[in-house]
Amino acid sequence: MSDTRELIQRLPKCELHIHIEGSLEPELMFALAKRNHVELPYPSVEAVRRAYHFGNLQDFLDIYYRGMSVLIAERDFYDLAFAYLQRAHVDNVRHVEMFFDPQGHTTRGIAFGTVVDGLSRAIADAKRQFGVEASLIMCFLRHLDETDAQKTLDSALAFRDKIVGVGLDSSERGHPPSKFAHVFARARAAGLFVTAHAGEEGPPSYVWEALDILGVGRVDHGNRSLEDEALVGRLAREKIALTVCPLSNLRLRVIDDLTRHPLRRMLDKGLAVTVNSDDPAYFGGYVNENYRAVTDALRLTRDEIIAIVRNGFEASLMPVAAKAGAIAELDRIAAATE
Ligand code: ADE
Ligand code: ZN
């Protein structure tokens, strides 16, 4: 196994499913709480970590939204994103498409521009210092209504050059993609890429809706697609990538054991699977740890690991020439580590 560990470390990678607010480590949470005079419901960093036991997605979301209350000023968003990008660089991540949840902040009175400016400044500095490329995908919170999402899109369009796409996250059950048909149509008309969480806890019909009604180019998670053969056929034929997050699925009890993670069946059915960290500060691992855990549990071969990494680049929004260059480099490094 140690040679696959080395392989995972050495391969250049993409991360296509990371909620930047989910990279808020307890140490930074405490530092920002102090700086901003925010009271946290935990006495210590250790107590925060101990509270991270989740029975399902909603248990996690309740804690996640409370955690982000320490993010107030532009420099808080900068510190958050810079810390993540520095950590991603350690894992040899070269390209990141970063989700953020503006409504998690605007509903607390933080200006949209404060969030985007802080994140964008960190992205520019990380590119200069580490060579990591990153861009922003704004997610709508699906437990809120579409009117709220429309207002959020209005705010985003004033920062159009700083945002590459829109996504859909938060509580999945009871909030089907069709609830957001109009706002996604507007986002597409504005030239934004569109993606959505679907099939994490929700049924395969939510994945169909994400494809047919929202017009997504990727599906975030997509685990429950496997319950529907016709859907699997469609995803495979159209090479719609799934941004899979193994440790998240384990910690949110979407699966009960990593050895039964659906990624093995997804690969066997020819789906374009990618591996990502989702909310690494909450789920116990950044992207390489997700690769390592799923490699050990599913006994992934070296070729399978390389194929998953390649899927990430293929499914990314990198410009054509940069993508070809990154894949050529991936192939070179893969050959050199044989
Ligand atoms: N927001 C942050 N992480 C999420 C997840 N795994 N599912 C849905 N919404 C989220
Ligand atoms: Zn997610």
Major sheet: order of its strands? 1-2-3-4-5-6-7-8
User: How does the helix and strand content classify structurally?
Assistant: alpha/beta
Helix content, binned percent: 40-55%
Q: How many domains is the backbone divided into?
A: 1
| Major sheet characteristics | 8 strands, parallel
Instruction: Give the strand content.
Output: 5-15%
CATH names the topology as: TIM Barrel
Order of helices and strands: HEHHHHEHHEHEHEHEHEHHEHHHH
Distance between the termini: 14 Å
**Radius of gyration, CA atoms, in whole angstroms:** 19 Å
Examine the secondary-structure arrangement and name the CATH architecture: Alpha-Beta Barrel
Characteristic key phrases:
about 350 residues, alpha/beta, TIM Barrel, 8-stranded parallel sheet, about 50% helix, globular, binds adenine, binds zinc ion
Write the layout of secondary structure elements.
Blueprint: H1 2-10, E1 13-19, H2 26-35, H3 45-50, H4 57-67, H5 74-90, E2 93-100, H6 103-106, H7 112-130, E3 133-141, H8 146-157, E4 165-169, H9 181-189, E5 193-198, H10 204-214, E6 218-221, H11 229-237, E7 241-244, H12 246-251, H13 263-268, E8 273-275, H14 280-283, H15 287-298, H16 302-315, H17 320-336
Bound molecules: adenine (ADE) and zinc ion.
Zinc ion (ZN) is lined by residues 17, 19, 169, 197, 220, 278.
